[in-house]
TrEMBL record:
The keyword Transmembrane helix applies. It comes from Novosphingobium clariflavum. Keywords: Membrane, Transmembrane, Transmembrane helix. Residues 1-45 are annotated as: Disordered. The chain crosses the membrane at residues 55-76, 96-114, 121-139. This is Iron transporter. It comes from the Bacteria.
């Protein structure tokens, strides 16, 4: 019988060189069904679950804080392109907005990959303060785009 998508069973695996089918597996099906069985593989530590507070802090960082940080980065980049590099304002805004999609996605990935939530928030706050300060100074010095 051949294996196909309609549920037929694949052929049995070939027997071991000594001819015993059970020698291929470390445990019999009866041993696997037993609740206090011991695995032939080394026992690994269970993954530590994420607490509700940690998850809430990460979700707040992933959505509203990420949006704020991406908005600041977009505005700062548009100002830098327009005033610092001489790109026309419309093209500077479009370029910064296109880049903002990638920035938002990368920051969302970083939020859930960082181990320490405190370091994540410190990084977010410091980055937002630097970009916000630079953007404010840029607006005071040069006005709107």
């Amino acid at each position: 019988m051949r294996s196909d998508r309609f549920g037929s069973r694949p052929p049995a695996p070939p027997a071991d060189p000594d001819g015993s089918q059970g020698a291929r597996f470390a445990m019999t099906p009866a041993e696997m069904a037993h609740p206090d069985r011991t695995s032939p593989l080394p026992r690994q530590k269970a993954a530590k679950g994420i607490s509700r507070g940690n998850l809430a802090a990460r979700l707040i960082a992933a959505i509203p804080a990420n949006y704020l940080l991406t908005s600041l980065a977009t505005a700062a980049l548009a100002r830098l392109l327009a005033q610092g590099l001489g790109v026309p304002p419309v093209e500077a805004s479009e370029s910064a907005t296109l880049l903002s999609f990638a920035v938002f996605a990368v920051l969302a990935i970083v939020v859930f990959s960082v181990r320490s939530i405190a370091r994540l928030w410190i990084g977010f706050v410091l980055t937002a303060a630097v970009m916000g300060g630079w953007l404010w100074l840029s607006l005071e010095a040069g006005g709107r785009l």
